Amino acid sequence: MNMSLEAFKTRVLPTKDKLYRFAFKMLGDQDEAQDVVQEVFIKVWNKREEMDQLENMEAWCMRITRNLSLDKIKSKTRKMTDHIQEGFDVSQGDGLTPYRSTEMDDTMKNIGRFIASLPEKQKQIIQLRDVEGYSYKEIGDILEIDMNQVKVNLFRARQAVKENLLNMNAYGLQ
Amino acid sequence: MDSNRIDDLLEKYWECETSLEEEKELKAYFNKTEYDKKYAEVAPLFRHYEREQKIGGLDSFFDQRIMAEIENVQPKVEKKGNIIALFGNIAKVAAVGLILITAGYFIKEELSKEEMKPYVSDTFEDPEKAFEETKKALQMISKNFNKGRKEVRKLSTFNEAQEKVKADNQL
What we know:
The complex is a heterodimer. Chain A is mainly α. Chain A folds into two domains: about 1-80, RNA polymerase sigma factor, region 2, helix turn helix motif (Rna Polymerase Sigma Factor, Chain: A), CATH 1.10.1740; about 95-174, Winged helix-like DNA-binding domain superfamily/Winged helix DNA-binding domain (Arc Repressor Mutant, subunit A, Orthogonal Bundle), CATH 1.10.10.10. Helix content of chain A is about 75%, strand content about 0%. Chain A has helices at about 5-10, 15-25, 30-45, 50, 55-75, 80-85, 100-115, 120-130, 135-145, 145-170. By secondary structure, chain B is mainly alpha-helical. Among the domains of chain B are: about 5-55, no CATH class; about 125-170. Chain B is about 80% helix and about 0% strand. Chain B has five helices and no strands. Chain B starts with a helix and ends with a helix.
């Protein structure tokens, strides 16, 4: 059965922020990330006849987002730069006192920077698991790797993050 | 929440043994305004993840643009597709019809050739039959020949009469 315009609106469109965040993490550029999401949606629409056969449409969308982002990166052979990473941290703290808010913000910024510096696969897995809450199987589908690879990389990433937290603490960022 | 529970969950979290539900529980706990201060080191991590998940960036203008684009794409593609498919089907039927008609024509031609052959070039296989047929044919010829001779005889009588008249005149 064909996907109707209504089904597209209720089932596909709401994934836009997840797709956008993922593309943005990879590309570091808002406009490019938006272009990628748009391209993904048009792909979905053009293939709407096959969409119902997909086991997990959202994971499929994420995978296409990743592939299109990789294509963009390849075509430009660009590197993530520091000012891009700072772009992630524009949102406001929530309801904390100004003093604590700043302190908390700094720590969170540091964490963000540290995660952004992880190897590409670990960074993507952190984004998919700890930020977006995907299952191991879904992450495997999205990144096109097996579940053991997902677990190994997540384990390494979390260990690195843990160590970083302890170091930050020990060297007086608290 | 019981801090033993959080300790357990955290330990499992670092070992990647927590379920998605348990990870949600951790996130929820550390994003409350009040949490046990002994977790001051880890809390920012889960707050960071929570905040990352709230980054939007695609507003309703984006939705409108996508929907407009899709609605524009839809009718064109479908119409074109239908027309092409229709022509394709008609062409298929026509092609098959053409092949059948042509094949039929040649088969008919071939059959009619074969039907004509015996009249044109057949010979009798049984010598007796051949003999009978030949005899019949020869008899027919002799019969007609005799018929002709009868007529010729009439002519000769006429000729005799003419010569008699000539002779009488000379006398």
